[in-house]
Amino acid sequence: MKQLDFTNYKFHCSGLKNLMVNPRLKSETLSETTKSYLSELFIKEAFGREKSDMVANKYVRKGIECETDSIELYEKVKGEKYFKNQETLANDYFVGTPDIIADDKVIDLKTSWDLWTFFNVDQSQGEKDYYYQLLGYMDLTEKKKASLAYCLVNTPEGIIADDTYRLQFYMPEEKALEYRNNYIFDDIPEINRVKSYEFEYKEEEVEKLKERVQLSREYLSSLSI
């Protein structure tokens, strides 16, 4: 098999956090977690296949189907008009499609699955999960600020039907239908259904990201089957 060249490979911002897991030993340049992630990327690029756990599930499905709803909710709460960004941006290191590119910052929206997942998110969790994604977006857009907003919107009827149908295998139908309330949030004030956290561009952190990108490119180029 011909060895692939990843010299100029651009990493999607959504996966950047996987590159930044520090190795356990100082003698190592990449962690085992990072190497595992890169191995999956290699297989995807070389053979056009992804592991099943990377394929869209119901949580991802809601995020995709409710993107417009989340933007509209965010607009109402913030009292501003925003437009969904449709352009995929790229530079020498990163590639990504930020949700919203405002005049002074980039905004990324996350649609929460239910009230419990929404309740449990905070600044610390947002930074853990999405800090490097936001740094990548800021670098792509040359913005110095970013907002991460979690939105709690109603679940689409198709997803509700699929979920309640599965529940009927474990409980009476009438009991399963009672859970419908867990998918609809109109009774909660809109202002209580948006959590927004602010982040700033840090050049030193972006440089660390770019260094890790270079190491990851070298590792990818060393792989073969």
State the main characteristics.
225 residues, alpha/beta, Lambda Exonuclease, Chain A, four-stranded mixed sheet, three-stranded mixed sheet
The ordered H/E elements are EHHHEEEEHHEHHEH
Q: Helix/strand-derived class?
A: alpha/beta
| Total count of helical runs of at least 4 residues | 8
Radius of gyration: 20 Å
Give start-end ranges of low-pLDDT stretches: none
For the biggest β-sheet, the strand order reads: 4-5-6-7
- CATH class category of the domain at 61-208: Alpha Beta
Q: At the third CATH level, what is the topology name of the domain at 61-208?
A: Lambda Exonuclease, Chain A
For the largest beta-sheet, the strand count, sense and barrel status come to: 4 strands, mixed
Q: What distance lies between the first and last C-alpha atoms, to the nearest angstrom?
A: 7 Å
Average pLDDT across residues?
A: 93
Task: Describe this entry's structure for a reader.
This protein is α/β, with parallel strands linked by helices and 225 residues long. The protein has a domain at 61-208: Lambda Exonuclease, Chain A, CATH 3.90.320.10. The chain has helices at 32-47, 58-65, 67-78, 115-120, 123-141, 157-167, 173-178, 203-222, and strands spanning 11-12, 89-90, 94-96, 100-101, 106-111, 145-151, 194-200. Strands 4-5-6-7 form a 4-stranded mixed beta sheet, with helices on both faces. Strand 2 and strand 3 form a beta hairpin.
